[in-house]
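#struct-queue
[09:14] JT: dropping the first one here, sequence first, then the structure tokens:
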Amino acid sequence: MIFAAITFLAGIALAVVESTFVKAAAIGGIRPDLVVVVVVVATCSLGFGRAIMLAFMLGLARDFYSGGILGMSSFSLTFTAFVLIVAEDYLLTDNWKAQTFVVFLGSLIYGSLLVVLKLIVGYELTSPFLILKMIAWTSVYTSVLGALGFALVKTPEPPPYGRLKMKYDVEHETLHQSKI
């Protein structure tokens, strides 16, 4: 419960940052999506339950702050996190190129699902070409920040104790007198 409340408050703070500072960094009306970066990085760092909860609460905070239909962003972010968690075994996030690709993929899934949900609800959308262009360029811009997000969160993990012990045993192996 505390994790959910903290995540919701962080989502409100992130929405405020997106609407003020990130708006100034827009290039041609296209701006990066910080919430997607946070969700993708958290999906690769946290366990299943916490990542899904984080995605849902950040989406709910975004819906709450934006004044749109409650649940669209939360469902889209939760679905994006779920897809990335399921595909986590096949997606390596060891280097910056792979991290950039994973954030691009997450942003593409989120943007596409959001457009589909808006069509289902009955929003009047402009031309499909402009929508696809906006989703693609937003995904590219968001993926540029993705590697930075991974660099801030992920630290190299030391190898597990068993592997270190096995390496020590092999390096310091002694031969019995009968084998000499």
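[09:21] JT: and here's the second one, same format:
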Amino acid sequence: MKVGKKRLLAFLIGSVLLLTACGAKKTDNIYHDTIAALPKSDYTATVNIGLDKPVLLVTDGVYDDGDGNEAAIYCDVYYPVGKKVQKIGTIESMGTAYPIAFGKDGIYAALDRGVQKYAVDSADGKLVMTQNIYVSYDTEGTASYFNEESGTAKSVSVSEYDSAEDVYAHCVTVDFKQKDN
């Protein structure tokens, strides 16, 4: 039986696409039971931040950010700890101008005068704030810039602050979807 080159090529491309789709679906299945147990009014999103598995974010309040996203200013964070998916923390931004966002190395929240970056410590199963950079003004209105690490604030330059703001500005806004009923 002779198979034409075009048919063979179409078969191979179709097979690759099918296998790719199956592989992508498997990743989200780790959260199937967790999502199924949530209230019908919740919204979920999975984000990839450079870990072995995606991170599940859950909120009960979203808004249209004007760019086609169902954004949120707070969410609970879930990740597999051992063999069980657990809530490992909560992230909150300070208003709709600062939606929860993510980049290749973390999840971000923002304040009117600062940025917070979170990572998942997959070994300990904890959500960790790895950066809390902000500006503070004295009574004269003079700005001072700080980065808080491990509960200790150290002074940083305005360019370090601006860099953190720029990183947040280039992150992807989390687009939550209503849980399938």
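[09:30] RK: nice, looked through the second one.
[09:31] RK: The helical segments are 5-29, 32-36, 158-169.
[09:31] JT: good to know. The radius of gyration is 21 Å.
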